[in-house]
UniProtKB/TrEMBL annotation:
Coiled-coil regions listed in the entry: none
Domain of life: Bacteria
Pfam families membership: Acyl_transf_3
InterPro entries tied to this protein: Acyl_transf_3_dom, Nod_factor_acetyltransferase
Segments traversing the membrane: 55-73, 85-106, 118-137, 149-167, 179-197, 203-219, 231-251, 271-296, 303-321, 341-361
Keyword Manganese found: no
Protein name per Swiss-Prot or TrEMBL: Acyltransferase family protein
Region listing for Disordered, in residue ranges: 1-50
Organism: Streptomyces meridianus
Domain Acyltransferase: 53-354
Length: 401
């Protein structure tokens, strides 16, 4: 942008692009920004450690807690209308919140070699590993030896990694179109009324959740600041209250499968036109509740802030306990279905996923979640030229968020 107070032709030096990240992939570290101010010598602050953005780490941690609680509540929904109502409310916003943050930190993603490598090692490889391990777990824990091992049919939680891989690859396209959100919403609507898409790569979820990722792509830092205004925080209280009351009314009248976005309307035994109505209605409701959720997320550093860097670990690892509790009949007893039992189940779910996000767990499973795999990739020409010249690699800076 030309500065009118400067001589004609003066232009501000553009800020470097934001780093990539997603809420479930530490291979990209979006909120780790190099805030190294230049001194008169041009070198001061160059070695200053990178700072993470506490708001986004807090949001990711709280969202993963809601994910774990939602999975813990699922077996209770058949016997408790209140549990079903809370389940529907949480499912309206917890994955959209994750996906919006993921899209926000994918704004600078392109087909650059190093970013493609991180996409493979940080998303594709963990998908392959966990899909295989989950399949074996299903065979033995559920006594289901016929359960197939197929990388084309994601089981349980691994669909998110497939979706993240596809969304990231589509990012350059949505960055150049004029109306990215309406385009993504149109794709989601068409997917919801297309039963022939099938289950391959869980494409229904990939396409129906796509608008939230694109919303994140077009968001700017000031949008997150806007939802954290005092009046929004206050308004979020009655909004969540109304949503909970409405969900309590809707619980016996509406299938919670609508919130999974994994089926077409024909598979839900609904008329085709309801796919248009429900996709648009749920998109609007999810955006409102997600904004209310962001309004309540603390901006300052909290005791759980550091756990936001390990949400991928908590997300994928807690699935073994969530599914195992069904396979092993833990919810077949009466006590978990009592009010005190439901509270205890909620607390256990929150504690377990919190532990799974801690640094010791990250160190233990980093070889799976963030493998380096340098052996699998050719070295780029620039790195080879630097080695021959004996010059250190140029440090990439990123704008602080």
């Amino acid at each position: 942008m030309t500065n009118s107070l400067r001589p004609h032709g003066y232009q501000r030096v553009p800020l470097p692009p934001a780093r990539d990240e997603n809420p479930a992939d530490r291979a990209y570290r979006p909120d780790e920004a190099d805030e190294s101010p230049k001194s008169s010598s041009g070198t001061a602050g160059r070695d200053k450690p990178k700072q993470r953005n506490a708001f986004f780490d807090n949001a990711k941690y709280l969202a993963i807690v809601f994910v774990a609680c939602g999975h813990a509540w699922e077996p209770l929904t058949d016997s408790s209308r209140a549990a079903e109502a809370l389940y529907m409310v949480v499912y309206t916003f917890h994955m959209p919140a994750f996906i919006i943050i993921s899209g926000y930190f994918s704004r600078s993603f392109d087909m650059r070699t190093d970013r493609l490598k991180r996409l493979v090692t940080g998303v594709l490889v963990p998908y392959v590993i966990f899909e295989i391990v989950y399949s074996f777990f299903k065979q033995y824990a559920d006594d289901d030896p016929t359960h197939p091992i197929s990388l084309l049919d994601p089981w349980y939680l691994t669909w998110f990694l497939v979706a993240l891989f596809v969304w990231r690859l589509a990012t350059p396209l949505f960055k150049i179109v004029r109306w990215p959100v309406p385009l993504a919403l149109g794709i989601a609507v068409l997917a919801s009324i297309s039963p022939d898409i099938g289950d391959d790569l869980d494409l229904q979820r990939v396409l129906q959740f796509l608008p939230f990722f694109v919303v994140g792509l077009v968001m700017k830092p000031e949008h997150f600041e806007w939802v954290r205004q005092r009046w929004v925080k206050i308004a979020a209280v009655p909004v969540f209250a109304v949503a909970t009351v409405f969900a309590y009314w809707a619980a016996p009248r509406m299938s919670s499968a609508w919130f999974y976005h994994r089926d077409s309307v024909q598979e839900l035994a609904a008329p085709w036109w309801s796919g248009i109505v429900m996709t648009l209605a749920l998109f609007g409701c999810s955006l409102v509740l997600t904004a209310c959720f962001f309004a309540w997320v603390p901006k300052r550093t909290m005791w759980f802030t550091a756990l936001g860097a390990g949400t991928l670990y908590g997300y994928l690892l807690h699935g073994f306990l969530a599914k195992g509790s069904r396979f092993w009949g833990w919810f077949d007893h009466d006590w978990p279905h009592t009010p005190l039992g439901a509270i205890a189940v909620t607390v256990v779910a929150a504690v377990v996923v919190t532990v799974l996000c801690t640094p010791p767990v990250q160190r233990m499973f980093r070889f799976v979640m963030e493998p380096k795999m340098n052996w699998a990739f050719k070295r780029d020409a620039a790195a080879q030229a630097r080695d021959r010249a004996g010059t250190p690699p140029r440090k990439e800076t990123a704008r602080a968020h």
